[in-house]
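Subject: for your reference before the review

Hello V.,

The reviewers asked for a structural picture of the protein, and I figured it would be easier to keep everything in one thread rather than splitting it across files. Below is the amino acid sequence we used in the manuscript, unchanged from the supplementary table.
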Amino acid sequence: MITGIPLSVTYRRIATFNKVNENHLGNSLINLASGKKVRQPQDGVSDFFRAQRLSRDSNDYSRIKNDIARASAMMDVVVDTGEMVYNGIQRMKQLVDLYYDESTTEDEKRAMQSEFSSLVKQVSYTVNNTYYDGKQLVSDSRDNPLDSVNLDPRDIDKKMVISFGAEQVANVDGLILGSGYNEDIAAVNAELEKAGSYLASANAYSFGLSAQYAIAAKKADISNAVKDSITGTDSGKEIVRATNYSIQHQSSLAMLVQANLVRSSVVRLF
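And here is what came back from the structure prediction:
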C-alpha cells in the first residue's frame, strides 16, 4: 500500500518497478519485430557466443559453397573440352578401321583422309586454344593446378586440387592416315587413351565437386537452423510475455499517478 511506508520510498519503488517493466516490454517488442531473442551477450552469454560461432560456420560454408560453384563452372568447360577431344579422336579411330577395310574404294579413302586431316586440325586447335581464366585447360597442370578448392573452413589442408598430367594430354599433330593399319591404329589408340584418361578425370572432379557442394550447403543450412533455434523468437510466447509486461507497465503508471496525487495533496496540506 502507498500509505504503509514513507511516500518517497513508495514512489521510488513504483518508479523502479515501472522502469523495469518498461525495459522488459521494450525488449519483447524488439524481439517480436526482429524475430530474435538473443541479439547481444546480456540476452544470454552462452547462447549469444554459440550463435556467433554458428553464424561464422554458416558464413564459412557459404563461402566454400561459392568457391565450389566457381570451380564447378570451370569443370563444365573442362568436361565439354574433354568430350570434344575424345570424340574427335574416337572418330579418327573409326576412320582408320574404315580406311583399311577391303571394301573401301579409292574415292572413299581420299574422302576419309580429308576428314581425318580436318579432325586433326580441330582437335589440335581445341587442345591448344581452350582457356579458362587465363589457364590452358588441356595441359600438364600438375605444377600449376587449374584450381584448388578448400573444403573445410577448419582445415586448410583439406582441399580438392584440380590438375592433369602430361600423360593425359592428347597430341594429334603427328597423326596421319595411310602409313599402314598397324602404325596408324597404334598412334591413334595412344592419343585416344590419353584423351580418355583426361575425360575420366574431368568427370570425376566434376562429380566430386557436386558432392562437396551438397555437403557444404547442408552444413551451412544446419548451422543456420541451429542458430535460429537458439536466437529465434517464439512469437506466441513473446506476445503473451509482451502483453503481461504491458499490463504491469500500465498498472505501475497508474500507481505513479496515484502517488503523485497523494504527494500533491500532502504538499497542499502544508
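For the response letter, the relevant points are probably these. Helices lie at 7-34, 45-99, 106-129, 181-231, 235-269. DSSP finds five helices and four strands in the chain.

Happy to draft the paragraph if you're swamped.

O.
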